[in-house]
Amino acid sequence: xxxxxxxxxxxxxxxxxxxxxxxxxxxxxxxxxxxxxxxxxxxxxxxxxxxxxxxxxxxxxxxxxxxxxxxxxxxxxxxxxxxxxxxxxxxxxxxxxxxxxxxxxxxxxxxxxxxxxxxxxxxxxxxxxxxxxxxxxxxxxxxxxxxxxxxxxxxxxxxxxxxxxxxxxxxxxxxxxxxxxxxxxxxxxxxxxxxxxxxxxxxxxxxxxxxxxxxxxxxxxxxxxxxxxxxxxxxxxxxxxxxxxxxxxxxxxxxxxxxxxxxxxxxxxxxxxxxxxxxxxxxxxxxxxxxxxxxxxxxxxxxxxxxxxxxxxxxxxxxxxxxxxxxxxxxxxxxxxxxxxxxxxxxxxxxxxxxxxxxxxxxxxxxxxxxxxxxxxxxxxxxxxxxxxxxxxxxxxxxxxxxxxxxxxxxxxxxxxxxxxxxxxxxxxxxxxxx
Length: 435
Hints:
With 435 residues, the chain is an alpha+beta fold. The protein is built from 10 helices and 18 strands. Strand 14 and strand 15 form a beta hairpin.
């Protein structure tokens, strides 16, 4: 069954009967040879904001339908049929709804990708076909510093602000090559001195060519600041190398101590006791250094640890330790600990700590770039110079002089042994606060 409208009003009523969800109004359209209908969609929330549909026709003549798409017209070259009109309107409204849903989906995907890009922990920026910085995500922005008007700026100019001229030119050439050929560029680790910050930075980066919305090509760069990882790796390597070096030195020291102890000991029992004491002194010094990551050691703690094994046999008050707060270098800490251990052992056997009244004064000063340490015994038996020098004496005089690039002197004066150690502050100390 085909219904043909007698006039515009009848067509309007037919549409209303078949599509009660539409709100239609009939208006006179000036300049048209006939009656016009303006279909304004207002009631349906899904269809709201769709284009206005203009219907104009004479009964039984050619009908013109406009406005199904923005800026376009659709013409029906046939008699005016209300049923067909409703069908066409419904089809176009369905198409408009699908188009809107597609646009909504596209907008949602765009927002999703923008969120992912802006929240990404890697830096991303886009260079357009005119070699200008077109877009940059938040992770990448700090790398560019405080360059004003960054977006839209010539990328080559930006590079020359950030990096030395030679490196900036090299990077610009890489980007232009990818832009021209489509060949990607990847580098797992790049190191360079920043021109604007005067610091060394490490980056992992890659670039790819992409097609832009205008049809031309651009270049997108993905990069990651790996300075923390590289510095940690280099530090780890340095620590391992230093550890290997120290282990070798420690083993050499232990070997020398063992050899000299066994050579001069009167019995295996004495050798065991002497060797044990020396190794304990060495290990306590290592404990102090380990707590400070082998960067430095507190001088007062080194001295106290060296004489501690003898505090159980003599009154602690018989040791007088004084001097400014000072931190010594690892090599100096080991050398001093071994020297003070040998001096303590000798004092217990033959010197000021071998009776009930002797005392030992240990002090140090830092003056005019020279560190001076003194071991002075008093109140003990009368001291006589030894007829020969043993391992302990050689360790103090030769070992300290070598390890500290200074001088160590032992004086066997009648009132007690005096040991004076002098070394350049730069060789002895890590830092010092003088009193």
